[in-house]
Every structure is written in C-alpha cells, then in structure tokens.
Amino acid sequence: MILALAALLIGAPSGVMAHAAPRPSFGAFAGYAWFGSVKSLQGSWTVPHVRPGSALGVAATWIGVQAPGIPHSKAFIQVGIVEHGFWPVHDSQPLSFDYAFWSDIGHHFRAEPLFIVKPGDRVAASLVLQSGRWRVSIVDLTSGGRSRFSTAEEAAFSFNMAEWLQEDPTSGRTHRPLTYPVLSDVHFRRLRLDSRAPRYGALYSQWMSLRVGSLEPSPLREDAFFVHRARPIGADGARYLSMAARVDAPQQRFVLAMSGWQASTPSAQIAAERSSFAAALRRFIHGLTTGRWPASAAPLLRTIAHGARTLLAQTSLAPPESPAGLRAWIVRWRHEASTLSVSAHMLRRRLGVPELTPP
C-alpha cells in the first residue's frame, strides 16, 4: 500500500479473535475499508453456507469502526455473525452453528454471542454513535431474531475507519484445531456510511490469504459487493506489490518517528530518519520509471512518479526548529503523502491487486 494511509493503519486492531513472492500474504480479511470521520455504519448480508468438502472451521462476517493512527487510541467496535461449520465425510448435509455477536476493545476482541442464526438467513447490522454512546443493532430479517442495545464503551474517540469484512479468525495461529471453512460467497448489500451510500472510488479493497489461493471483494455495484475467490495476480501487479512492500515498511517507521518529533529533538536524529525514508522513496521512483508497464497504467504511473518526487522533495527539506515551523512541515508532509496515496490506490485497482495490505 505505497503511502496508502499507512499512518492511519499503524496499530490497527485485528478483529473478532485475537508470504514472500511469488505468493504474498494479504492478511485475514476480505472486503472493503473506508477512511474518514464516521458516526454511523450499516450493512446487510446473507449468512453463508458451508460447501461440500469443508473441514471443521470458523469464519466471521461483520461491520466495524476503528480509530487507528489517533495518538494513544486503539478504539474499535464491531457487530456481525460468527460462522462455525463443516461437511461430514459420510453425510450429505453440512453441520453448522452460527450466531450473531458484537465485540470491542473492552472485550479484548472476543465475540460476545447475541442470538442464533442459520445459513441463508438475511441479516442487517448497524453501529450509530449518538449522544456519547454507540447504538448497536443486528436483526435476522428471516427469523425475526434481533438484538439492540447501547454502550458507552469506545464512544470517546473520533473514529476514522469503517469496514465491511469477512474474516478468518484462525489466521496466524500455529496450533489451531479449526481452519477457515469452505463457504459460499458472502454478499454484502445496502452499505451505508453516515446514512449515505459510500463512493466506490473512496473504498479500499482487502484480500484474504487462504491456504490455497485468496479471497477478494467484487467491485461495488448499487451499494453491494460479494466476497469470492480471487483471480490470479498478473506479473505487473506482482511487480508493483513487491516495489510497494519495500517502501511501506520504511514509511511506517518514518511516520512513527515523525509522531515523536518535538522542537527539542536533535536535528541529527531528524536528518537520519528523513534520509532513511528518502532512500526508500528514491528506489520506489526508480522502479516506477524503469522497465515496461502496461500502456493503460501509464497516466497513473506518471502521476504517482510526480507525487513521489514531490514527497521526496518535502522529505529532503530540513524542517524548521521552531514548534510552529515543525508542525507546519509535518502538515505539509502528510498532505503530500495523502495526495500520493490517492493515485497509488487507483493504480492498484487498475492492476487488479489489493488496495490495502497489512503492515
């Protein structure tokens, strides 16, 4: 995610429960994320079915909001469905146990059960911040089961990230009795953000790595998308992902270092941290401007190269030592980084690769 809001993603929570080329790792989530001030979030979907041949597994489908990147904050709240199931070898019918849940930081991301649901049920969920409390709602439109309540937990922050996701809660566990099951496609509908449908151009796709292959979200159409098996990534997309990965880590280190700068921070320290990130940016620019790229991506590549050079110029410029001058320098740097991230986001979409990858 070259400069794609990495400053916001540092320290982001991981969800319900707490690869090098040629097969990169995309993480444990498939769906879309949106960045900006958020007060309410909605979505509906159909509880997926377990497909033939699935081993005993667990998955989760949910909507949630976070406040990653805000100093001293890891605020997070979610509501959705946990899906347990498998397809017995000697039986013609799958076995499943699915239930609605909610969770937050205060519950250490552990799923708090609300009521039972069944595969094929249509559910609708919402999170609304009002009068200093989160109003949490999830309704099974098929069975009539529902849970609505409010909580003051997680209500003290300005949330800046919204998500509609399918999750593999078993990801990253070396000793795990469960795995991610083989499920039918998960269809999300009626996406709403502060009571309005989000623009597709403002959404960032996330892909989920499986033991074999990946899952990706379809393009957003009429406020809906579905999570399905990802198509293979082409050579150009794989090349860009490799280039971006080599600048993302230095960028994240630089953003963290920059967040601790003060007028009293030694200029030699600031210079060294600027120099390290500048070197990574130069390598990235070299990769953009050499070799062959598809003609359809050429305009975006030129825009990104220009934005990267502008960010490099700002990075190379020594910030003033006064508090006001240092703050102004950081604001300008973040502006240039944000401008570059928009073009990088569109290039990733053009090349058919995830638009948001784990740090």
Please write out the topology.
Elements: H1 6-9, E1 28-35, E2 40-46, E3 57-66, E4 76-86, E5 95-104, E6 112-117, E7 122-130, E8 133-140, E9 146-151, E10 161-167, E11 186-193, E12 203-209, E13 214-217, E14 225-229, H2 235-259, H3 267-289, H4 298-316, H5 323-351
Antiparallel strand pairs: 1-10, 1-12, 2-7, 2-11, 3-4, 3-10, 4-5, 5-6, 7-8, 8-9, 11-14, 12-13, 13-14
Helix pairs in contact: 2-3, 3-4, 4-5
Characterization of this structure:
The chain is α+β, with helices and mostly antiparallel strands and 359 residues long. The protein folds into 2 domains: 6-229, Jelly Rolls (Sandwich), CATH 2.60.120.1270; 235-351. 28% of the residues lie in helices and 30% in strands. The chain is built from 5 helices and 14 strands. It has helices spanning 6-9, 235-259, 267-289, 298-316, 323-351; strands at residues 28-35, 40-46, 57-66, 76-86, 95-104, 112-117, 122-130, 133-140, 146-151, 161-167, 186-193, 203-209, 214-217, 225-229. The chain has a 14-stranded antiparallel sheet with strand order 6-5-4-3-10-1-12-13-14-11-2-7-8-9, with no helix packed on it. A hairpin with a 2-residue loop joins strand 7 and strand 8. The longest helix is centred in the last third of the chain and has 29 residues, at 323-351. The protein starts with 5 loop residues before the first helix and ends in an 8-residue tail after the last helix.
